[in-house]
Specification:
151 residues; Nuclear Transport Factor 2, Chain: A; four-stranded antiparallel sheet
Length: 151
C-alpha cells in the first residue's frame, strides 16, 4: 500500500498538533480546586496552627473585618478543638444558608474523625463562601453539633 506525500504530511501534522495540544493543556491549566477541597485545606491548615498560610484563603472583605491577629485568635478555637479531638476531619454536611444580605451562601461542615463512632458529633467546623463559584472563605467557625432533644 502506497501513501501519497500529501497523506503522509497530513498524518504527521495531525499527530504533531494533537501531541503539542495535549502537552500545552497538561502544562498550563492548573486543576481547579472545588470548594469542599478548599474548605478541607483551610480547616487543616488552621487545625495545624498555620495561620499565615490560612489567612490569604479568606476573602478580602473578611480580611478587612478580621486582622491577622484577630484571625489567629479565632483560629485558635479551632486549633484547640483539633488538639482535643485530633487533626483528622470528615465532611459532615453541605448546603446553602441565607446570609444577612438575603443571598444563599454555600456552606460546608466537617466533624472530627474521632467523632465518627458517636451518634452525633460534638462540634462541627463550619466554612461558608460568597457564592458557588467563590474560591475564598467568607466565614468560618465552630458550631455546636445538633444533639438529640430530651423528652
Amino acid at each position: 500500500m502506497r501513501y501519497s506525500t500529501q497523506q503522509l504530511c497530513a498524518a504527521f501534522f495531525t499527530c504533531f498538533f494533537v501531541a503539542c495540544g495535549s502537552l500545552l493543556l497538561a502544562a498550563n491549566l492548573p486543576a481547579k480546586i472545588s470548594q469542599v477541597q478548599l474548605t478541607r485545606k483551610f480547616l487543616l491548615t488552621v487545625l495545624h496552627g498555620e495561620y499565615r498560610s490560612a489567612y490569604p484563603l479568606l476573602t478580602s472583605e473578611t480580611q478587612q473585618q478580621l486582622t491577622a491577629a484577630q484571625f489567629r485568635a479565632a483560629g485558635r478555637q479551632l486549633y484547640e478543638q483539633g488538639k482535643r479531638f485530633g487533626p483528622r476531619i470528615t465532611l459532615y454536611k453541605l448546603g446553602f444558608r441565607f446570609g444577612d444580605d438575603q443571598k444563599a451562601h454555600p456552606f460546608y461542615q466537617f466533624h472530627f474523625a474521632s467523632d465518627t463512632l458517636r451518634l452525633r458529633p460534638q462540634v462541627l467546623l463550619d466554612v461558608s463562601f460568597r457564592d458557588s463559584a467563590a474560591t475564598q472563605v467568607l466565614t468560618f467557625g465552630l458550631v455546636p453539633a445538633p444533639q438529640k432533644k430530651a423528652r
